[in-house]
Design brief:
Its cofactor is Mg(2+). InterPro entries: DgoD-like, Dipeptide_epimerase, Enolase-like_C_sf, Enolase-like_N, Enolase_C-like, Mandelate_racemase_C, Mandelate_racemase_N_dom. Its EC number is 5.1.1.-. Belongs to the mandelate racemase/muconate lactonizing enzyme family. This protein is 31% helix and 23% strand. By secondary structure, it is α/β, with parallel strands linked by helices. The chain folds into 2 domains: 108 residues, Enolase-like, N-terminal domain (Enolase-like, domain 1), CATH 3.30.390.10; 199 residues, Alpha-Beta Barrel (TIM Barrel), CATH 3.20.20. α1 crosses α4 and α6 runs parallel beside α7. The model has no long low-confidence stretch (mean pLDDT 96).
Length: 327
């Protein structure tokens, strides 16, 4: 019996508004893939991202175009050559992982060598706003051990000062989302170091970050938009200290595992991050992140409504997925 794939567009409201340097959103738009075979089914979720030229309609069409290949038994490894990295491949790849686990009875955690998986401490993200509003966000979440703070505007030093004063016991990651410039980066780095910042994510636009190889890094710098797949890593040596692996960029868990292992070989620190999605999107990432240096899998915490069943969050601690959810 041929495998059957179904594709669904879904929307989940965000609690309030989520703002980064490129704009704001009030809902998470996701695409869910289900692949059924022999009475069992596997699911995967992706989040199309405009920064990478993706739309809901385009990603949906890319998945639909693979219908006959999936029905014919296309596997995860062949999928890497059949589709480019990105959200569409991620949803299919994760659905195939889930289906394999259901058909074989072997959990994904065991298949990738992280059995038993453990709960992880995730960052919690604060939206970009004026310094006073960001201080209020930080104050409300000051009990969380790790905060990720969206910056990337003209007033970032004031934002850094406001947040670090409001949450003095939290470690803080700054995420500039490509919002700094060659002219501002050295002063901003020095200011961040003076205020005890732990990590700075993608300060400069991807492809326009050569200066990172010539300036001091008083705070470690992590690539996000600059890295999608393992093939991107060699060009980042000497520019970045760490890389942020996201399944929607790598095009699924299969490539993300390769990316993680290659990044370790090259000496990069590892962050495992996410788009704003539901627990179904986070579940494979929680397994990928078992030995990561930084975990940023707070997508469901930013939603007004998550899937049921979802991941268990206790404060900033996220537990591995139950097999009723994924894997």
């Amino acid at each position: 019996m041929a495998r059957v794939i179904s594709v669904e567009m879904e929307r989940f409201p965000i609690a309030g508004t989520f703002t980064i340097s490129r704009g704001s959103k009030t809902e998470a738009e996701v695409i869910t893939v289900t692949i059924a075979d022999g009475g069992r089914s596997g699911r995967g979720e992706c989040v199309p991202y405009k920064r990478y030229g993706e739309t809901m309609e385009g990603v949906y069409a890319a998945i639909e175009a693979m219908r006959d290949h999936i029905a014919g038994g296309l596997g995860r490894i062949a999928l890497l050559d059949a589709m480019p990295a990105g959200a569409a491949r991620n949803a299919i790849d994760c659905a195939l992982w889930d289906l394999e686990a259901k058909l074989t009875g072997t959990p994904v955690a065991a298949a990738i060598g992280v059995l038993p998986p453990k709960p992880l401490e995730t960052a919690y993200t604060l939206s970009l706003a004026e310094p006073e509003a960001m201080a209020a966000q930080a104050r409300a979440n000051a009990a969380r051990p790790l905060l990720k703070v969206k910056i990337g505007g003209d007033n970032d030093m004031a934002r850094i000062r406001a947040v670090t004063q409001a949450a003095p016991n939290s470690r803080i990651i700054l995420d500039a989302n490509e919002g700094w410039t060659d002219e501002t980066i050295e002063a901003n780095l020095a200011f961040a170091a003076q205020h005890g910042i732990t990590l700075i994510e993608q300060p400069l636009p991807a492809g326009r970050d050569e200066i990172l190889g010539r300036i001091a890094h008083p705070v470690p710098i992590c690539a996000d938009e600059s890295v999608h797949a393992a093939k991107d890593l060699d060009a980042l040596v000497g520019l970045y200290d760490a890389v942020n692996i996201k399944l929607d960029k790598s095009g699924g868990l299969t490539e993300a595992l390769r990316l993680r292992d290659r990044a370790r070989d090259l000496g990069f620190g590892i962050m495992v991050g996410c788009m704003v999605g539901t627990s179904l999107a986070m579940a494979p990432a929680v397994l990928l992140a078992q030995d990561a240096d930084f975990v940023d899998l707070d997508g469901p915490l930013l939603l007004a409504r998550d899937r049921e069943p979802g991941l268990l969050y206790q404060g900033s601690l996220v537990s591995p997925p139950d097999r009723g959810l994924w894997g």
